[in-house]
Design brief:
binds zinc ion, two-stranded antiparallel ribbon, endonuclease activity, two-stranded antiparallel sheet, His-Me_finger_sf, 18% strand, alpha+beta, Homing_endonuclease_His-Me
């Protein structure tokens, strides 16, 4: 390896899965989305009390993180958080998710507390 490059274990895992198990990962992600219930606001919720977790290739994570990263080909590291634009933690609609930093995620929560969700922006 030349120069300084560092990928944390999360990034490495996504890199391997996307490169070698992409097909399987994508069908798993689509199956999770299809099994969800669509709400009036367009969210797709999992039939679980909290954010559903998914286990794949020896790793466990929230389903929304798995779905977002696999469907968008994103190698997310530990500092990358998948944000809910709809502020619904149970939502796994890929269109309601986006990548951000931990700081932005906190800002989202403050914005939501102050303004609520503007579904016109989704
Ligand atoms: Zn949503």
């Amino acid at each position: 390896m030349t120069g300084f490059s560092y990928a944390d274990a999360s990034q490495q895992w996504f890199a391997v899965v996307l490169a070698d198990h992409g097909e399987e990962a994508r069908s798993r992600a689509f199956a999770l989305v299809e099994a969800g219930d669509t709400t009036e606001s367009g969210c797709i919720e999992t039939p679980t009390q909290d954010a559903r977790r998914v286990r794949f290739m020896g790793r466990q994570m929230p389903a929304y993180r798995f779905i977002f990263c696999i469907l968008n080909g994103v190698e997310a590291g530990y500092d990358d958080v998948v944000r809910h634009r709809c502020n619904n933690k149970r939502c796994i609609n890929p269109l309601h998710l986006e990548l951000g930093s931990r700081g932005e995620n906190l800002q989202d929560e403050r914005d939501f507390a102050a303004n609520g969700v503007d579904f016109g922006l989704l």
